[in-house]
Specification:
Helix content is 38%, strand content 27%. The chain has 110 residues and is an alpha/beta fold.
Length: 110
Amino acid sequence: MDITLSNHNEIRIATLAGDIDANTAPGVADKILPLVEPGGKILLDLSAVPYMSSAGLRMLLSLYRQGTAQEGKLALVGLSEEIRDTMSVTGFLEFFITCDTLEEGIEQLG
């Protein structure tokens, strides 16, 4: 799992590449959860994430809960069709702003 962190104005962008499963989700959480700040904006670029297990979904839910507790915003960009379908069936899509491109995500959070 590769994680690249960057900033665009006040938005923290985390670009993830690789599968998010039981082996990688804890490492992703260790890098992403510290980005949560009061009123902060986080954009997760998942364009290069082909697979996400239930451990990955739990990590996203934890990120969502911490973010909303601090009145932050979180957007997901580039969900694969498989991940989008899983998140839709489980009701997870309702929690997140989702966009197809990085530019759309930045616009939504801006």
